[in-house]
Amino acid sequence: MTNDGTPPKNTSVRVIGMNALNAAGSNLEEVMQSLQIDSTALEKADRLPPEIDPLPFPATIGVIHDELSSDFTPDALNTRQLALAWKSLAPLKNKIHRLVKQRGAARIALLLGTSTGGILTTELMLKEQKESGNKQHSQTDNYNCFEAHAMDAAARHLATRLGIHGPVYALSSACASGAKAIASAQRLIDAGICDAAIAGGVDTLCRMTLHGFHSLKVLSATPCAPFQDSPKGMNVAEGAAWLLLERNDEKAAPALAFLRGIGESSDAHHISAPDPTGKSQEKAMAKALTAGNVSAQQIEYVNAHGTGTAANDAAEGPAIQRLFPQAAVSSSKGTFGHQLGAAGAAEAIVAIKALHGAELSPSGSLNRDTFLHWQRSRQERMKAEEGFVLSNSLAFGGANISLLFSKQPWSEGKAASSQSRKYRFGIQSWSSEVINPGSDNQSLGKEILAPRPRARASELTRSFASTLGRLNLSKDELAKTPMIIGSALGQLQTTKNLIDLFLAGDSSPLAFQSSVHNAVAGGLSIALKNQLPSSSVAGGFRSSTAALIEAASYLLTHQEMEKVIVLVGEESPPQTVGLPPYPTATAGIVLTRASDARPYALHFDPEHGTEERAQKDTCLPLPEETPLLADHPTIHFLRLIEAMNRGLPSYSLNEPSGPQQFFIKRKIEGESAHD
Predict the structure, then answer these.
(1) Cα separations (Å) of 33 from 20, 40, 244, 466, 587?
(2) Least packed by Cβ within 10 Å: which of 475, 582, 609, 643?
(3) Is 97 assigned a catalytic role?
(4) Catalytic residue among 269, 305, 558, 632
């Protein structure tokens, strides 16, 4: 059995609703109208949202000037990210209510892709602290790091308002986040974990991205020009986009399109620059074709990532041309900018609209003549029953993902049962790390990280590397096993230090590229030369649950995958963000489908408890040298590890506020790890 990450033939998941909000329009209709004309919605950075100070450098950006609702309570939750998310999602409420009524609230997932989460709110709080001499004022009075800054905060609040009780978490793989959320939705539906999903991406403008990309010298002072002879650079923008996905069965609503296949890869090349050969990007596109049983010659249109930077265009353009010399190719970023975590969702919607003959501007095309020929035949395409389009996303950390959409379902695909099922997975090995504040941890992770990257790495990265290095996997196994990393706040100290630099008028390109939520996943992939998919997920205090669900979905839908590494952890927070002091703590397990004898099996019941469920134990004592608070974000996963270290017969991992139930138990002789 191979473990190369090639996806299996999957079912066709229906797209039954979609909407977008960005600089080009307040809704999908307005956005598509803007894409039809050869103009841009981008503007000089002199009308920033009122929360952001004027920029000290020239830039052209995508700004949303719509009036935004702030009716989420308490006031601490009224972040700009949440307001954008709700305004763009509200038009789909009726369709969501139908899903809840027909499918059941526990059978619907809400998956949010985001690169920066609520970091803008943290920036405002730190700015006020600095200007007021650290005295408490309005921003700091209301500030709550887990309810504002955390990558998944908006997802949790949206799910509460909409009555969603299924898996709820964020995918934060930088600029691939929105597409990653859509891919996760397909896996959850294909695996039978849920019947429908609300999936999309939301990101706002903030100092960290504007100053950060400026420090990398890739910002353009004029609207970007993807795939042109002299790339100008990129334009940071804000936006939100959502797709409603539903199981393709007799209960489903009429389809706008079908999500036919997903392809993912990791460059394992550089934390902020794409693989210049384009081979890794090409691999992701080829995997999407294999997953959807579609040939390269059948692809009519590719919506490229196309940022307009020299490095991106030089890598992605030739990769697309090698696979799809006949296809029309364009980037939408010249119209509404690079929406970071929202880009993958917004551009997937553009690809779906193109599938049905929508007219698009040729300004961001890879080959203008091919693009114009494709546009002239759009009426014929609208009448044709067949049709296939692709949407690409690339990201920091070397994450690549391609989404394949079609007009028709794949008739040979067999839908998984929509009834709740119980799953078992073997646990091959486990380890954990707790770093008390003030400890000397420079040598942590030396088995994985070379001296120079280790010296530059954050405490969280070193801790994850140390946990990974003690999972009893060979270097060859580490290079051929996908990784899922769960963390609500990520490298919080690095992020806070970077914001302080920007507030002082300084910058650091190294700190910026290391601050993104999936920098840990990217850094570990590079160190291990691992080109398989990796995902960074966030679920607040339930991040371990989110990571386990994500890992389970990969194993259940990729039959050739033997195992997945699951790492969960949080970094000791700086005092200025209002969190109680706690140590950096990480934990990891190797989840496997192998049927041979393993010491433990992890049981997952997607909805409710089971007759085998262990008695809930939230008070399992940890060693005295592990001074963790009862509400430490990683406490549940660490207790699971400790239960296995002690050889306990069973332990439950039933975190609050969610229907997902996990527990481990010793394996019975002859019992299969997966049924």
Answers:
(1) 12, 11, 22, 51, 49
(2) 475
(3) no
(4) 305
